[in-house]
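Anyone up for a design puzzle?
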C-alpha cells in the first residue's frame, strides 16, 4: 500500500495525447512565416485561422519544435507554437490502453515526476503492486491501487519494478548437535574478545566456542 505524503495528488495532464497525426488539418493560432522543406522556393506567410495538412514534427537547430505541413503540394516548416502545438509528452497515455502489473521487491519511493528531483509522494513496500501506464528514459508512469476507488498516478524508477513478486525468504535452521559434545577436528572459536575481535583459540567443542567463551 502507498504510504502517502501528498494525499491529494492526481495527475491528469498528458492522460490523452492531443498531438496531430499525419493527414490531420492544423490551424494557425498566430501569424508567421513558413519555409520550404527540403526544396528551394519562396517562403509562405500565413495568418491566424489559416489551415494546412500536417505531416510531421521535428526539432530545429535552436531546440525549438518545428511543424511540417503541406499547402497543396508544396511542403513547408514553421515553429510549432504558431499552431498551438506543444512538444509531445513521452508519458502521455491513451485512455483505455492496457496496463501491465509490476511488483516492487523492497521499499520504493514514489515521485510526482520522472526523476529524483521531483517531490516524493510516498513509498511502496515489498510485494506491493502497481499498474505501469508507460515508460520512458528509465522512469515509468504508474497507477497505484489504493484503499479507495481512485488511483494515484505517479512515477517510479523502471529498474525498481519487476514482472514477478519478490522471492520467498528462506532462513537456515538453527544449528543443533547430538551425541558427543566434542568434534574430531578443531575449528576456530566463534566467540569474540573484549576488544570485539574474533577469538583466536581453536576448539573441538560442538558449540563452536572455546572453554572461555
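Challenge accepted. My sequence:
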Amino acid at each position: 500500500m502507498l504510504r502517502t505524503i501528498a494525499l491529494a495528488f492526481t495527475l491528469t495532464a498528458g492522460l490523452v495525447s492531443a498531438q496531430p497525426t499525419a493527414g490531420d488539418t492544423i490551424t494557425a493560432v498566430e501569424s508567421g512565416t513558413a519555409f520550404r522543406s527540403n526544396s528551394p522556393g519562396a517562403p509562405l506567410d500565413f495568418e491566424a485561422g489559416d489551415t494546412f495538412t500536417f505531416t510531421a514534427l521535428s526539432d530545429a537547430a535552436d531546440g525549438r519544435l518545428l511543424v511540417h505541413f503541406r499547402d497543396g503540394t508544396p511542403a513547408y516548416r514553421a515553429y510549432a507554437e504558431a499552431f498551438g502545438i506543444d512538444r509531445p509528452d513521452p508519458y502521455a497515455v491513451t485512455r483505455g490502453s492496457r496496463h501491465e502489473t509490476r511488483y516492487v521487491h523492497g521499499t520504493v519511493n514514489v515521485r510526482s515526476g520522472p526523476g529524483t528531483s521531483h517531490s516524493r509522494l510516498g513509498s511502496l513496500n515489498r510485494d506491493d503492486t502497481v499498474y505501469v501506464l508507460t515508460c520512458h528514459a528509465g522512469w515509468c508512469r504508474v497507477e497505484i491501487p489504493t484503499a479507495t476507488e481512485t488511483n494515484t498516478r505517479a512515477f517510479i524508477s523502471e529498474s525498481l519494478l519487476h514482472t514477478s513478486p519478490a522471492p520467498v525468504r528462506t532462513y537456515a535452521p538453527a544449528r543443533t548437535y547430538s551425541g558427543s559434545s566434542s568434534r574430531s577436528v578443531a575449528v576456530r572459536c566463534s566467540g569474540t574478545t573484549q576488544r570485539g575481535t574474533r577469538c583466536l583459540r581453536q576448539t573441538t567443542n560442538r558449540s563452536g566456542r572455546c572453554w572461555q567463551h
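A detail worth pointing out: The longest strand covers residues 51-59.
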